[in-house]
Amino acid sequence: MDIPLYEQIYKYVLEKIIDGEFKYGDRVPSEKDLSKKFEVSRITSKKALDILAEYKVIKRIRGKGSFVLNNQPNMFLNEYSNPNGLNHTESQSIGLILPDFSTNFGLAFVKHVEKLCSELNMHLLIKRSYGLIEEETKSMTSMIDLGVDGLLIIPVHGQHYNNTLLQLVLNKFPIVLADRFLKGIPASSVCINNNEASRQLTEYLISLGHKNIAYLSPPLTGTSAIEARIEGYKNAFSYQGLRLNPNHMFTDLQSSLPASIHSKDLNKLQMEDSNKIKNFILNNPEITSFVVCEYELAALLYNALKKMNKKVPEDYAIACFDFPKSDLSDLQFTHIEQNEKMLANKAVDLLIAQINGDDNSKQQFTNYKLIEGNTTKYL
Fold first, then answer.
1. What is the pTM for the complete model shown?
2. Could you say which architecture CATH assigns to the domain 93-192+340-366?
C-alpha cells in the first residue's frame, strides 16, 4: 500500500532529527518549504508537523515556526513507522455535495479537494444536488449513514434553508459551506468577497466611460452570493457618485440555475430568458453595458445581442463572474476569476479543524482576479 504523503513528510523530518541534522532547538522546515519539496498542499505538510508536535518531537510556535523539542525520539520510531500505531493514519472520510460543476466554475475545486483528500489519506464521497433541496437532503442523509466524518457543501440556491443542514450545524457536526454562506446559520464558510468583486467589476465598466450599466442575475432567493453581487453593483454607483437607475436591474432569469440546467425544459427556459433579455434591452435603450452574475447568463446575453444584430463590445460591453478555462474560442469575457484551489484549501482546512474538535464557526474569504477580456472597451 502506498504511504500517505503526509506520513512521508513526518518520517522525513523525524529521520533528519534522529540523524542529528536537526538538533535540539533547531528550526525544522516550514509548512511552505515542505509543501514545495514534496509537491503537496500546505494542509498536508501541516498535518505532518502537527503529528510530530502532538508526540512532542517538535514544538510549534505561531508566527515563528517549528523547533526540535526531542532530538532522540528513537523510542517512538516504531510507533511512527507503523501506520497502524497512529490514530492519524486511520482513514477518515468526508462528503462533498454541490449543485453541479463545470469548467467555468467547480471542476477545478472538485479536483483539488480530491487531491487534498488523497494526500491526507482520506476517502472522498461526491454527490450532486442538481440545485434541488430534496437531493441535497438525500445526499447528506446517505453520507451521514455511511459514516463520513464531515461534510463540505456548496448549498443550493433557494429561499428556504435545508432543515437537515441546519440541524447538523446546530448539532455541531463538522460542516463547511463553500462558495456562499447561509444567513442566520452559524456554519463555517469559505467564498470570495462577492460584494467587493461585483463592485470592482462595475467600477471597471465605469472607468471605461459607461454610466448606464445593467445588472442581470437569477432571482434573489436568499442566496448570499447573488445578493452580495447585486449589493456590490449598487455600491459601485454610490462610491463613484453616480445615480443608479433601479430599472436597470433585471433579476428574473431562470435558465442558469442548476435545477433548470438538468431539466428537460432547459431549451424552453433558455428561449424564455433570451426573450426576456431582448425585451429588457428594447425597453431600456440607454443601457451600454452589463454586469452579469453568472457566465451562463453572460453567454445567453451575448447570443441574444447577436440575434439583435448588436456587436460586443462595439455596441454593448459585458462583464461577468467566472469563465470556462477550456474555452478555445477567440471570445473571452471580461470576468472575475475565483481561486478555486485556494477555495478548496481553505474549505478542507476548516473542515479538518472541525473534525479535530474546533467547533467555532468561521467565515473566510479567498482571492480573486479581474481578468480583462475582449467583451469590454472604452465607450
1. 0.83
2. 3-Layer(aba) Sandwich (3.40)
